[in-house]
Design brief:
mainly alpha; about 80% helix
Length: about 150
């Protein structure tokens, strides 16, 4: 029993040490975290001309990373896909989720990027076809290996 108490006491000491170390590291990182958050909010302000309310509702710890991802992929014109194509893809996905916020925003983005009404309608129709056939294949439990062979795969 004595060995158990010693082991239990050792584990408690280790837990207390780890908790204290975590608190110290968290407090030490706080100023840079706040600086990174503030810099991100300033960048959003300069990029978008304002800071939407939903940004202020987003967890502060995640905002710098989330904004970096949006800028690097969605807002960048230095990616493999041009802005119009990215907006049309996003709109098609938003229509399937569905997300009214995204549908409205992606439609505006697609139009600003030069998409015509016909291109917007086609992107949504293609997403509907994909959803339709996905429902058929999955609901009817079509064998994937057979499907792949019949569609020209190996």
């Amino acid at each position: 029993m004595s060995a158990y108490r010693t082991l239990s006491s050792t584990h408690s000491s280790i837990r207390r040490f780890l908790l204290a170390a975590t608190c110290v590291l968290t407090l030490a990182a706080a100023p840079s975290y706040a600086d990174e958050y503030d810099a991100t909010v300033k960048d959003i302000q300069s990029t978008m001309g304002g800071v939407p309310g939903f940004v202020k509702q987003f967890p502060k710890a995640g905002l710098p990373g989330a904004w970096a991802e949006v800028k690097a992929i969605q807002l960048s014109d230095k990616t493999a896909l041009p802005p119009k194509v990215k907006s049309l893809i996003s709109l098609a996905v938003a229509a399937q989720i569905p997300c009214n916020y995204c549908i409205w925003s992606d439609t505006q983005d697609a139009k600003r990027a030069g998409a015509t009404d016909e291109e917007i309608q086609e992107a949504v129709a293609v997403s509907a076809l994909t959803r339709h056939w996905s429902t058929i294949f999955n609901g009817m439990q079509v064998d994937f290996d057979t499907f792949r062979k019949e569609m020209g795969g190996q």
